């Protein structure tokens, strides 16, 4: 299941379809999508589930997420060319929502020949969606909608670049652990400064394979956190003030009072991590931090897919397990939770 957190005002079904694609980052297929409608008629949380995974338990879980998002009404969209199945599951979801006190505003079936609202027989053209204000605003904000879920993940670099990256990673790992930790944040700073080479990405992959160094990178990418805090975390973690500084930094991601939105530097960090992944796709640390930033920014589909890759590589990877629990529980990042208070 994918959960995405964004808030906009929509005026009709085409707006909602555009909002769903923008929020998820891809155009769903064979999916049931449910959007929260708040008391002021703004759209909030969006949840998506494969049609094959729909059952009583999953619908109840989704309804719980919507209720926690302060939904007064819901809109249910079914993406399928199978009209009977799509309508049946959408109506079922609406009934579950109504049991939890949320009225079904309308349902939409999106198919290859267009979209239909409620029991309309004639489809409206999908071209209407790209002409909506929501779609236009998404373009202006730089939101890219991929054709499929797979396309929202980082791609692969060329084979020769991947081989050079592996060599650089192995060379870095051959160094003594204390030396690697002492130099880890300088490697991160080089990457954030624009150095993009297999050598840098290989070294970063090695850095992120060390839990403590990975935590240093995590703290460094949080707005307002001086780099010396991460350096101290790696080289002298018991020094006075380190624990407090780290706690203050993490609160900016998860706390409903101190939480802040990811800034441009965080987006640069996400791109650096995506480059590491494209050069070395078996780095659970890189996948986890990339997915964490996606969750922090409200890009639920990217977060779910990325954390799934991390857990495939290592099902016991603790930070990935914690992020996955937050996603599955529908827990919003701090800045979103603050808006819901």
What would the keywords be for this entry?
single chain; 341 residues; alpha+beta; Cytidine Deaminase, domain 2; seven-stranded mixed β-sheet; 16 helices; 12% strand
Radius of gyration over C-alpha positions, nearest whole angstrom: 21 Å
Domains, number = 2
Mean of pLDDT: 85
Number of strands: 7
Strand content: 5-15%
Distance between the termini: 25 Å
Q: Helical amount among residues, as a percent range?
A: 55-70%
Structural class: alpha+beta
Task: Give the topology string: H per helix, E per strand.
Answer: EEHEEHEHEEHHHHHHHHHHHHH
Q: Which regions are unreliable across 5 or more consecutive residues at pLDDT < 50?
A: 134-146
Q: Helical segment tally? A: 16
Principal-axes geometry comes out as elongated
Biggest β-sheet description? 7 strands, mixed
Quaternary status of these chains? Answer: single chain
Strand and helix layout:
Blueprint: E1 2-4, E2 8-9, H1 13-24, E3 31-37, E4 42-50, H2 56-68, E5 73-79, H3 83-99, E6 103-111, E7 114-117, H4 127-130, H5 133-140, H6 159-173, H7 177-192, H8 198-208, H9 211-220, H10 227-235, H11 242-254, H12 264-279, H13 284-296, H14 300-313, H15 318-328, H16 334-340
Helix pairs in contact: 1-5, 2-3, 6-8, 7-8, 7-9, 7-10, 8-12, 9-10, 10-11, 12-13, 13-14, 13-15, 14-15
């Amino acid at each position: 299941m994918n959960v995405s957190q964004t808030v906009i005002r929509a005026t009709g079904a085409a707006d909602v379809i555009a909002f769903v694609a923008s929020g998820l980052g891809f155009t769903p297929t064979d999916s049931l999508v449910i959007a929260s409608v708040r008391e002021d008629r703004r759209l909030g949380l969006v949840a998506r589930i494969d049609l094959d995974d729909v059952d009583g338990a999953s619908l109840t879980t989704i309804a719980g997420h919507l209720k926690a998002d302060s939904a007064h009404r819901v809109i249910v969209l079914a993406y399928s060319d199978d009209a009977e199945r799509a309508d049946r599951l959408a109506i079922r979801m609406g009934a579950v929502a109504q049991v939890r006190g949320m009225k079904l505003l309308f349902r939409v079936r999106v198919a290859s020949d267009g979209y239909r609202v409620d029991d309309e027989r004639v489809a409206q053209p999908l071209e209407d969606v790209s002409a909506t204000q929501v779609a236009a605003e998404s373009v202006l904000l730089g939101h890219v909608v991929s054709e499929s879920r797979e396309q929202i993940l980082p791609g692969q670099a060329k084979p020769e670049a991947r081989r050079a990256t592996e060599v650089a990673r192995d060379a870095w790992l051959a160094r003594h652990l204390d030396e690697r930790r002492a130099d880890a944040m300088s490697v991160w700073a080089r990457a954030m400064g624009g150095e993009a080479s297999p050598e840098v990405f290989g070294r970063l992959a090695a850095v992120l394979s060390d839990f403590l160094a990975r935590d240093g990178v995590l703290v460094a990418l949080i707005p307002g956190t001086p780099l010396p805090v991460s350096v101290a975390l790696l080289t002298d973690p018991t020094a006075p003030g380190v624990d407090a500084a780290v706690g203050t930094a993490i609160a900016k991601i998860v706390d409903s009072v101190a939480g802040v939105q990811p800034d441009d530097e965080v987006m640069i960090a996400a791109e650096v991590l995506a480059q590491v992944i494209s050069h070395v796709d078996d780095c659970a640390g890189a996948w986890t931090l990339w997915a964490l930033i996606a969750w922090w920014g409200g890009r639920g589909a990217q977060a779910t897919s990325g954390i799934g890759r991390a857990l495939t590589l290592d099902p016991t990877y603790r930070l990935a397990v914690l992020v996955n629990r937050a996603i599955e529980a529908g827990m919003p990042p701090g800045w979103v939770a603050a808006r819901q208070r």
